[in-house]
Design a protein that fits this description.
10 strands, single chain, eight-stranded mixed sheet, alpha/beta, about 325 residues, TIM Barrel
Length: about 325
Amino acid sequence: MSPEVGPIRPPSEAGSLLVRVSRNCPWNRCAFCPVFKEKTFSRRSVREVLCDLDDWRERYGDGITTVFLQDANPLLTRADDLVTILEAIRERFPRVHRITAYARSNTLAKRSLEDLARIRRAGLDRLHVGLESGCDAVLETVSKGTTRAEQIEAGRKAKETGFELSEYVMPGLGGRRLTDAHARDTASAVRAIGPDFVRIRTTAVVPGTGLAELAESGAFDPLSEVESVEEIRRFLTALDGCRTRIESDHDMNLLLELRGRLPEDLEALIALIDRFLNLDEAEQDAFVFGRRTGLLTHLDRMKGETVSRRIRESMADLRARGVDPLAAAAILRMQRL
């Protein structure tokens, strides 16, 4: 039997061995998430995971260098069991230099510092935590199942026990009504935590999710692509000297090149955002269309005459057929999730 592999991992773990420690998500109620719907959370036994590790070892030898523990919250595993799994990974794959995992803030906040320190010493290096927002009103609206205070406590415990910490932030998650509070409160939560990475994941209203239902009912008014970029600008400006690294490493983000270390790169990041915001409306629409249809990846590519011509021609062709180019691009965006 082949080793089990779950459905998701961070983009930064694209080259990592995926080791499924638990199945699905124990919360599974976040309004924005389409991944684990209709699926039940369960813990895998240590024996099952060790058998998978033996299979992977037989396939790859000792060539594995990075490992990601799946699924959404493997830190719910008993500390003793997780330590056993981590030690087994290090034993079977001696060249591994990084083991990472997702972790829910609710779980981290409830874990003792002693258990977290044991898990860290056993070899779990980095935690990926879905902060999403530091605004309680946003967290409640999207049924995140945690609070701002709990998120901060969880992040601080992770840092105190020696983990490298990635916090995920979702521009646009507050919609138009809460956009200012979302940007402000999320920035202040990040400052309070001091994570090693802030990874941007621009909100997408995925059909079939609770967020889509809220949007259809009028309870959630999604931001446009331009408004999401404006919110990111407010968020970055409000970080006020926080030392962290900004990563825009997901295809849902409009500006993939928005990466740098704060505070030293803040001015350059804001300048990049302003380059986009200072485009006229037609140029902004052309860039959004080009990004979402895969005709370009970065703002600099708009300078190329060949690319610009292809974008203009594609948009004109769609209009001639009675299709809104930006609506078509939005559909393609959903399909690439």
